[in-house]
Amino acid sequence: MSDLQSQDYVRRSATTMTPPMARSHEDQVAKLIDVSRCIGCKACQAACMEWNDLRPEIGHFEGSYENPADLGPSVWTLMKFAEHENEEGNLEWLIRKDGCMHCEDPGCLKACPAPGAIVQYANGIVDFISDKCIGCGYCVKGCPFNIPRISKKDHKSYKCTLCSDRVAVGLEPACVKACPTGAIMFGAKTDMQHQAQERIVELKSRGFQNAGLYDPQEVGGTHVMYVLQHADKPSLYSGLPDKPRISLTVDAWKGFIKPLGLAGIALAALAGFFHWISAGPNEVTEEDEAEGERVLREGEEKAS
Amino acid sequence: MTRPKNAIIRYTLPNRINHWITAICFVLLVLSGLSMFHPMLFFLSGLFGGGQWTRAVHPWIGVVLLLSYLGLIVQFWRENLLNRDDAAWMKSIGPVIANDEEHTPPVGRNNAGQKLVFWSMTLLIPVLFFSGLAIWEVYFGAATSIPVQRAAALIHSLAALAAIIVWIVHVYAAIWVRHSVRAMTQGYVTPGWAWRHHRKWLLELAQHGKTDDSRKRT
């Protein structure tokens, strides 16, 4: 979306100085998705398209309820359907609304090389500022959840904004507003955590012993959280990562290698400069020229 | 080209054109690549028309560089094969750095340092090319898995840093050993230069009477 809030950044991509953050006294928000209450109606998908004016291309039937087949530049949220056979041999239909998790420590933002193309607001929302995006796809490599998608038309990266434009003016995200069963909730993160705990107690009393909250601490927690019936095995839910974390490869690439690399280059150049002013240039002397000429002359004489 | 009478051709016109296409590509790749590597150098993307242009043009320059460097490999691999002189030269790296020619063993057409630059680039450029393909989002974004792309990005940046340092050594050596740059621009060296820096090469040229031949070459 556009850069509506520019003085409440807590993180800004490819920025070595403190971003403008004077207006950052703000509660952290979170969206809570109660998977156990989802009926898979896709109203959230429709509301997302509607509010954000997204119209993905009409695709093909892929043999699944999932439609479209994958997230995309115009598909920011997607219902994922997993069929799980539990220990009693009963079928469980695990339906998860997939989309950006709005990590507290966002891997996309860490990997992004374009200053200000990815920002995190004080309320925790991670947003792509598209006019600054260069289309390199580094955010795709940074993300532990496989969320951002690069458009082939405009070479910009897209994902869920958590309706940062709506939230900025005190509205809840479009998907929250549309959900008919109240499976999607929105509010202060602490309130959402309380809400989740109440629901988890209820689920446990109904036999879901492993019910729990998905708020992975490996990425500092997320601003989109799930209540899962099987919180011990998040991967049951169409591959939700059990332990999501920014890849060590990305950590190294975007961490210590950046300053060390530049220091190495600078040192090499400085070593050259100081060699020049100490040892100095290696110049050919007149004696060298005389010797060289002699060798050539002797060679020619021998040949003729 | 105007050259002194006793000039010895060191690099022919095809050598030089090939070298400078590679050099121009390399400099452009360093500038555009560094702009995407460190935020403090992002301003360099302005030289290419902004971030989107830099991202779009960098891989294409890389393709040209690879093709161009293949040309250099074809032209120069033979004279960069290692031999015993290289070990001796490496051992006397102290005198070499101190400009102490008396204690530097005589070498042929290339010394071990030049060979090291050649073989380093011969290794690094294909590594950069293939790791670069994996992170060329526009065409190969879906060709490999994300973990492969992460590794490729890391390898690409490490190989690039190594190549930049090798390149700094190469450029500085050319400035330091006076009149080396002229060999790659105007193509010739003087007999004194050859005597001082590549004595065995000069003796070989003289022995085989190749000097006349080589003078006629462009």
Layout of secondary structure:
The complex is a heterodimer of chains A (304) and B (218).
Chain A: E1 9-12, E2 29-34, H1 43-52, E3 77-85, E4 91-99, H2 107-111, E5 118-121, E6 126-128, H3 138-142, E7 149-150, E8 157-158, H4 164-168, H5 174-178, E9 184-188, H6 189-205, E10 212-214, E11 224-228, H7 248-254, H8 257-278, H9 286-303
Parallel strand pairs in A: 2-11
Antiparallel strand pairs in A: 1-5, 2-9, 3-4, 5-6, 7-8, 10-11
Chain B: E1 8-9, H1 13-35, H2 51-76, H3 84-91, H4 93-97, H5 112-134, H6 137-140, H7 146-176, H8 180-185, E2 188-189, H9 191-197, H10 199-207, H11 210-216
Helix pairs in contact in B: 1-2, 2-5, 5-7, 9-10
**CATH level 4 superfamily of chain B:** Transmembrane di-heme cytochromes, Chain C
Strand content of chain B: under 5%
Secondary-structure class of chain B: mainly alpha
Give the CA-based shape of chain A. elongated
Largest sheet of chain A: 4 strands, mixed
- Oligomeric state, counting identical vs distinct chains: heterodimer
